[in-house]
Amino acid sequence: MGGSVNKCDCQAINQELAEKVKSEMKDDGCFSLLLAFLKLISDDTRIKIMYALSKSELCVNDLAVILDMTKSAISHQLKLLKVSGQVKSRKEGKFVYYSMNNEHVFEIMENALIHVKYQK
Length: 120
Prior knowledge:
This protein has a domain at 43-117: Winged helix-like DNA-binding domain superfamily/Winged helix DNA-binding domain (Arc Repressor Mutant, subunit A), CATH 1.10.10. Helices cover 60% and strands 12% of the residues.
């Protein structure tokens, strides 16, 4: 088969600028990680769980009440968030409490909410 379909087949209009921006581009691995993160938070339930956890440490029961969902549904999404490293947990008695692992994720969410507010 032939060459890659992703190869450029034209000349830059501003070669110097194109080279400068190209040198500042992140590598594909970085963009792959970003895409995986965005896919993770693109789920309606997960984004709500993350938002709630950015406000306070909560157990599954509390999250189920807040989001009006079953404990099973909440637990399933928490497992994905925990495996991805976005959420951490601690056990206290018979309950497991969850919290955000990184404060900067809340900042990303807040900035995104500001962005969509002004897109209207």
